[in-house]
Amino acid sequence: MSAAETALPALATSLTKADFLTDYRLAWESRHASLAGRKEVFMGKAKFGIFGDGKEVPQLAMARAFQNGDFRAGYYRDQTFMVAIGQLTWEQYFAQLYANPDAEAEPATAGRAMNGHFATRMLDEDGNLRDLTHTKNSSADISPTGGQMPRLLGLAYASKLFRQNPELHRFTQLSNHGNEVAFGTIGNASTSEGMFFEALNAAGVLQVPMLMSVWDDHYGISVPAEYQTTKQSISAIMAGLQRDGEGEPGFEIYVVRGWDYASLVDTYQRAAAVCREQHVPVLVHVTELTQPQGHSTSGSHERYKSKDRLSWEEAHDCLHKLREWLLAEGHATELELDDIEKTAAATIKTARTAAWAAFFDPIKAERDEAVALLNKLVADHGTENSMHDLVEQLKTNPTPIRADIVRTLRRALRQVRTEKRSAGRRAIQRHLEQLLAENADRYNSNLFSQSELAVGNIEEVPATFAPGAPQVDGREVLQACFDANFQRDPLIFAIGEDVGKIGDVNQAFAGLQEKFGELRITDTGIRECTIIGQGIGAALRGMRPITEIQYLDYLLYAIQILSDDLACLQYRTKGGQKAPLIVRTRGHRLEGIWHSGSPMQMILGSIRGMHVCVPRNMTQAAGFYNTLLRSDEPALVIECLNGYRLKETIPANVGEFTLPLGRPEVLQTGTDVTVVTYGSMCRIVMDAAKQLAEVGISVEVIDVQTLLPFDTDHLIADSLQKTNRVVFADEDVPGGATAFMMQHVLDEQGAYRFLDSQPRCLAAQAHRPAYSSDGDYFSKPNVEDVFDTVYELMSEAAPEKFPDIY
């Protein structure tokens, strides 16, 4: 049914009285959970609360259309839906509100995300994907509104690939021939986000089974729809997406009132059938919803809603309307419904009490154990100091947290630092170490994969070269690498602007679309954010996507979704989900402000949880791709933009050799100065090193190869122990990746103690590089800059041997 149609049958699907009463019970349980959650925040038992009150009935209708194998990418109002599909208990709901770090008690995020951030554990204890076709699945939520849209597109796109590519039909644990629907939810105000429009347009182009629900309560916090949406209706302004008829491209668009239970159930059954059977995307605009408690616990909606609006919301509360409908249709009596509401309140009270005990009792036990140890320390050292007061504070704290325990232990040890080590002091130290390790697991673990397929576990296979192998363009090395990997694994596919027909702008995929087909090597529109999202969603479902961002400068369009979604996925689910997406791009030296960027500082600061590979040539890049495509971790590979036509030798095992991540390579040994660099700068530095050798300066050149991870074996510190001088060089802005490298080497590796001269950083200018060869020369470090920087270091040490040049 389209947006233009105005009426629906009373109830098209076959439901029984028991079904109706089950939905009524769940709706009231959810409402009581929202009410109780708000109270828990105000009582200080939780830090913040955001709830799904007012959205219960449409979520119940949506849940009835959600089948095993389906996926959700939603937002923080979806508690009713998650309970209705059996993937959330009310005890787990409160465990998340209290931030319980136990993944058994709070399986979605292990207490790492605020309440309302839902996820299912898609990985087993070994970090491998479970059978996703026999469970109802939810990708892990993020807070940035609209941020679920790119991933949603990818979840739906995977169904298209699983259906249309016969090679994938054997992966029955990942898909049932592409019959899965990706359900998305979003608030009406967040449909103003560019990601929403971009994802919907892409879904219409791709024709994928994406069922998008908009919960419309007329507000975005305090801002009403007239400030948010043209015509105050997202379905009205998206009407151009409506397809002209069956078999035609486009969307189906449905508009349904959020308190009309019968129409909601009917609408979702129809919408899901269209998605599932025809792979047509659907937009369901759910209007006339309410928000009984306002946006969140941060404020009251009475501040910005008129009395008339508040009165209307009370009258149109979906729970009250559901009760009216059940009574009017004769499906229940007043007494039955009263009893359900009363029982629902009791259920939530029981769940809340149990969740609080599961969260707080272990902390009290830890507190009591620490107090017992501290009392022994007090006995050893007397009560003349303030340690006794510290212990009493902890002992009498009615609601301690783990930070209180650790803080007290550290301060107690501080007070006895000058005294003789006693048995009590040693016991405190051992206990503190144990607590710090336990809390590191609770709050700092699982940034990267812990499985057998983690990058560090991939076997290193050296490259081999046939005798007399010819020199070819670097792009041909990549082409051969991709060709071999696409033959090896049918789950691998590549998407991006110009990737398909012409084989990307630098021809590394040339001819591969013709060989492997459009489903494997696919052109996309200009939409960097959802290119990444398309890859994230597909990777979540077990596929191995390579998503291309044409130039490194354009990564800015996608950096938010890389940072907020992909990079922290394993961390925010504590190993419950993974998306081993490879993002391929190119940057560094070329020409101009928007085609030769090297924004490494931005990248390093924003995508921790991904690997960052910066190969100096295409053979090195191929080795990284071979490693990453056998691993289960996400990565960004930045190829050298000016390296595709430089000559290289193709390894005989071009699709098999692997490079370890985190291991630098010494390109040239030397004794006077170490120069640390990567990417296109390697050629610049090597040229300068040759010229420096002519004046008697021996330079050791090190290519770090990857920035994340960085020199895990401390090879650079070993070099500094020999040369005692170092220059960090790259094309980022001053204080960017050069400072990152210096901090690792001098601070983490402790190599400062080997230095006889001030460490130097050689970076690009603080502005974007200007166009033309002269612009490149004067904007970025050149051979003469490297020569002069190294020479100055040696001139300071031996001015007679190396007199000033200028």
TrEMBL record:
Keywords: Oxidoreductase, Thiamine pyrophosphate
InterPro entries to which the protein is assigned, alphabetical: DH_E1, THDP-binding, Transketo_C/PFOR_II, Transketolase-like_Pyr-bd, Transketolase_C
Listed Gene3D superfamilies: 3.40.50.920, 3.40.50.970
Record-annotated Transketolase-like pyrimidine-binding domain positions: 472-646
Organism superkingdom: Bacteria
Necessary cofactors: thiamine diphosphate
Pfam family for this entry, one: Transketolase_C
SUPFAM superfamilies: Thiamin diphosphate-binding fold (THDP-binding), TK C-terminal domain-like
Role noted for this protein: E1 component of the 2-oxoglutarate dehydrogenase (OGDH) complex which catalyzes the decarboxylation of 2-oxoglutarate, the first step in the conversion of 2-oxoglutarate to succinyl-CoA and CO(2).
Protein name stated in the entry: Transketolase
